[in-house]
Amino acid sequence: MTTLKVYGVPQSRAARTLWMVEECGVPYEHVATSFAKDAKSDAYKAINPNQRIPAIDDDGVIVWESMAINLYLAKKYGGELAPKNPIEDAHATQWSFWVMTEIEKPLLNALFARTGMMGMTKDEALATKYFDEIRKPLDVLNGHLSKSDNLLGKRFTVADLNVACVLNWASAGRFSLAEWPKVEAWLGKCAARPAAQKARAIR
Ligand SMILES: N[C@@H](CCC(=O)N[C@@H](CS)C(=O)NCC(=O)O)C(=O)O
Asked: What is the pTM of this model?
């Protein structure tokens, strides 16, 4: 019996959760909660009082915040995707916080400014200004990936998934990452994973 529910339409940050559950190979029910309407209902408020997506209900355990959800799913169902010791755990947390604080907001703003999504006026100068804010963090990531195949070492883990799912917005906005060749190559490998492709197909 499926006890894991994933809330959120795939055209949202819920795509991260869907990628993770596909990696875990765990049975789940996808509740395609829209952020504009369904997430504002009283019923959903009981799942996520912030009224945002994604959220999960794992047999009564409710978790919201996309990075926290993925770290939880990795540890519970992820096998090799999970941190194996406190050091890996610290580094998985580090990279997850890093991508949310250093990359997510400017990259999303750059995407909106370039594409006019979410009602924004297309403004290429603004898109460039926002993208410029992530150049330094991209240098940091490129430097790390020059010494390591993946973020925690040889194998692909939740740290890679959490960082890659945010950086995927660069291709959605047609921002070239060619200046950061290690990042570009690593991101390509992440996106080619069967679970990532399966999650994308849900759209
Ligand atoms: N920090 C949260 C952000 C969640 C979030 O903002 N989700 C958007 C959809 S991608 C949402 O629900 N927006 C509705 C709103 O802000 O009212 C996370 O990573 O889970």
From this structure: 0.97
